[in-house]
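note to self — DONT lose this again. spent like an hour looking for the file last time. sequence + predicted structure for the chain T wanted, 179 res
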Amino acid sequence: MANRSAIPTPRRGRPRKFGAPSRAVTLTLPEHVISALERIDHDLSRAVVRVAQPEMRKRPHPAAELSTFGGRAVIVVNPTRTLEQRTGVVLVPLSDGRALISFDESMTAARLELAIDDALEDHELPAQDAAVFVGIRDILRQARRSRTVTLFERNILVIEQNGKKHDGKADKSSKRKPQ
């Protein structure tokens, strides 16, 4: 089930560094560890988070939830091919094993919500997939009904492999012709 309190509310002050609740901690680390972390990210806290990502993948997550950053949020889901097949969305993998929902200009939030409702009427929909669909539906419904948030559709860049192997030589068949 979606986290209902996660819809972002306007807040004052500095934006959050991370999309989850966080707190300041003091660490004493050997210099060589600090140097290694700085090679990952000049901000030590972000470097520690990146190093911890593989461990985070092992943690169970809600089927669908909002990931907030400042006053904005995106829906992240446990990836399921069924969601892509039944709704036409494309799931973009995240480093923690979950996925971001993307779709082309022919899809809207309203059409996505309707496609999800239609899929949920299928009693043969596996329970794990149904949990993702219900989570997304609940988040979209809450956002649509809310007087304090606005739902925007944004584009993201997705780089997709075309299935051709690259051997370092120019492939004449893959060169785009000027239009």
